[in-house]
Fold this sequence. Notes:
Layout: H1 11-17, E1 22-24, H2 50-57, H3 60-71, E2 74-75, H4 76-82, H5 86-98, E3 102-105, E4 108-111, H6 122-136, E5 141-147, E6 156-162, E7 165-172, H7 181-194, E8 198-203, H8 210-231, E9 246-248, E10 255-258, E11 262-265, H9 271-284, E12 297-299, E13 304-306
Parallel strand pairs: 7-8, 8-11
Antiparallel strand pairs: 1-5, 2-4, 3-4, 5-6, 6-7, 9-10, 10-11, 12-13
Helix pairs in contact: 7-8
Amino acid sequence: MIPERFYQDDFRVMLRRQGWHLITCKPLYTDPEVIAIRQTESPRNIATGDRAFHEFLGDTIIRKLLRAILARPRTRQELLQISSNEQGLDQVVAILEQDGLITRESEIWEKGPECLAIDNIGPTLEWYVAEWFRSQLQVPARHGVLLEEVAEWGDLDVVAFVNDIRVMVECKSARPGDISEDELRYFLQRAATFNPEIAVLLIDTESPISRPIEILNAIYLDLAWKDARLSNPSLQDNAQLAAPKIEPQPDSKGLYWGARNIYVTNVRRSIDASLSAVLRLYHARVRHLSFYGGDNIWNFVTGTVSKPEES
């Protein structure tokens, strides 16, 4: 691994070249909110084996087990509900214990010394995705990116530059039904303000993600009606209205796209497979399309539409 103090790429410069001002971003390999093996001689120690640790976290079962144990102590029976293969579970749990990520008291597993101060897997998921761009695509990427121009709406989970294509990924580790409308509104607002070529909502689950899609489309439909009535206050409720819509993609189960640059995906096989499917869709089809942008400004968080001079 390249020591962080010597890690050089064009991330900050590429942001500046496109007019953005970086306030801060999280460190690559020393973020205290990211689960990492730091104190042991494990081959997955992030100081010497960041690639091995990244591959380790790529296993969906490992992320599920860590997510569950970070939330609260778990019994063996509870862990078997996540991984029903008893022999496989024993092997994984032994590695997690050896690496200090979990510890056992009697028949209860809880957080280990390597992650006592960590209570959720969210920042680790963000780091994993940023590291995927760095390691798999060899491109500049960071997690926890705070920009002057977007700071009003919070930080961006992951920003990467694939050639000159700006990519934003928002990572969700909660169950699809637990993702709130407010969270989705802020995702859309960050995507609208930063306006990358590709804005991905990555939900780390194998489950269907129809509920978040329904909420996103309802938000778009509501704002489309407000936009239309801003120009035509007498517009009838039964009028035909062309609203942006996020739709399933037939060639990639679990992948949705719409509204020009919005991609939503679950993780059916792996994060690698899901992000690769997004890039294939963009390069094969979306980048060749032409899009019309309206004149009015949509605020996804407040659910309002205004003319530019009113903003």
